[in-house]
Amino acid sequence: MAIKVTKTSRVNPATNSSHDSLLLPLTFFDLRWIKFHPTERVLFYKLHKHSSYHSLILPKLEHSLSTVLHHYLPLVGRLRWDPQDPKPHILVLPNDYVTLIVAESDADFSLLSRKGTRPETEIRSLVPELPASRDDSVFVLALQVTLFPNQGFSIGVTAHHSAMDGRSMSMFVRSWAHVCKHGNIGELTPCLDRTVINVPASLDARILEVVSYFSEDKTSSRSLKLPPSEEISPDTVRITLELTRENVEKLKERAKNELTRSHLHLSTFVVANAYLWSCLVKARGGDADRPVRFMYAADFRNRLGSPVPESYFGSCVLSVGCFGHKAGVVSGEDGFVNAVEIISDSVRGVGSLDVEALCELYIDGTMRVEPGTQTVSIVGSNRFGLYQSDFGWGKPVACETVSIDRNEAFSMSERRDESGGVEIGLCLKKCEMDLFIDLFQNGL
Fold first, then answer.
1. Which of 19, 89, 160, 161 is labelled catalytic?
2. Has residue 95 got a pLDDT over 80?
3. N or C: which end of the chain has fewer CB atoms below 10 A?
4. Tally of CB atoms within 10 A around 242
5. What's the whole-model pTM score?
6. Residue in 201, 13, 9, 213 with CA at minimum distance from that of residue 96
């Protein structure tokens, strides 16, 4: 597949004059992600017979982007860490901009946007890299629109995790789509007020210590340089799977029938992730006594005493881990129900412990991770509503989280054409993917 860049634009927020400066402090939840790989998503849209891409669609996308950035001003800024400041911040200066790459591809749109196995290297080329910058200053957003002539187009979004979590990214994309289709932002105006995050100030320094400890750049504790992107192996493939509402209900019933404990938290999140975790550990094979762990991001918008507005824009998630388990526990005959118990207990713990205790549990568990541990994580949610992102030419035919190809992670989203159940993305080497698919399908 060949990608040809036809234009690179610097899109400024729509104002009558240069926008004002803005300094936005990072919260405890933002700081966890300052040296984390960017979040990358791509949305695919079909071109209809009489769609005029060059004269209508692309100009409308650029114009509406400028309009929506006026409301999402932090996205045109950069993450900075000045020598005199104890922690980084997002700084927006007059004339700051977002880079929008316009490209064309000769690939098969229907192949890349379908749910079967696809080459990951071709999907990855549809999202941009964050523009290069200094170690103490990094961009927070980059965008790429790629045309597949006479087939469709894609919108690739690359965002720094300290600027926004998955919920906030989805809100931005839906806001952009609403402006493009309707000419106004509607009810999706973001809340940029950082004072709504009610977390003890001492946790800022604590999480920065941990970030520095695990940083790949040991030369400077204040460096904001992101880890280098790893080359994706040519035999890495992606698949999008679905657990229907019926599948989820069957998994819940199976858990109820096989578990001896009562009062477990048998949500869609718990049973879906328990099933995926057990299948993936089983697909990897190897020593049953090898260490494994499961990681997810818990949303704290309703867990901080005073509720955080649904429209809050930033990061408000904390990593939560299921530590100290052996592969055989979740891959054996009772692997699924054991995984249900483990994840259910973790989710209940998030609901009963405060943010300080959960932060320490995460730090302690991470410090104790044994070398060679198989870490499986889940990103995204079936509540983000990315399939509602209609720019005026119909909702996406597919939404993919590209950044799961850097580690062993699943992505989760709502299903496109039916309420209930979940859509799941996964990247693996071809041989391991074939085994995983067999286990996934035969166990339902």
1. 161
2. yes
3. C
4. 14
5. 0.95
6. 13
Residue 130 DSSP class: P
pLDDT of residue 2 exceeding 90, the answer is no
Bigger pLDDT: 57 vs 187: 57
Specify the amino acid at residue 339. A
Q: Which of 108, 345, 390, 434 is catalytic?
A: 390
Question: Which single residue is written with the structure tokens 């941009």?
Answer: 128
In the chain, what are the domains? 3-193+201-214 (3.30.559.10), 236-383+402-443 (3.30.559.10)
Read off the pLDDT of residues 107-150 as tens digits, 9 standing for 90 and up.
999 999 999 999 999 999 999 999 866 778 899 999 999 999 99
Cα(429)–Cα(424) distance, rounded to whole angstroms? 17
Q: Pull the structure tokens for residue 401.
A: 């989280």
* DSSP state for residue 196 in the 8-state scheme: G
Q: Are 170 and 385 in contact (CB under 8 A)?
A: yes
Q: Identify which has the larger pLDDT, 306 or 344.
A: 344
pLDDT bracket for residue 50 (50, 70, 90): confident
Residue 122's Cβ-side half-sphere holds a number of Cα atoms within 13 Å equal to 20
Catalytic residue list contains 390: yes
218 CB burial (10 A radius; 0-12, 13-18, 19+) = exposed
Distance CA 355, CA 300 (A): 8
Q: Is 325 noted as a catalytic residue in this protein?
A: no
Cβ–Cβ under 8 Å, residues 423 and 242 = yes
Gyration radius (Cα) of the chain, Å: 22
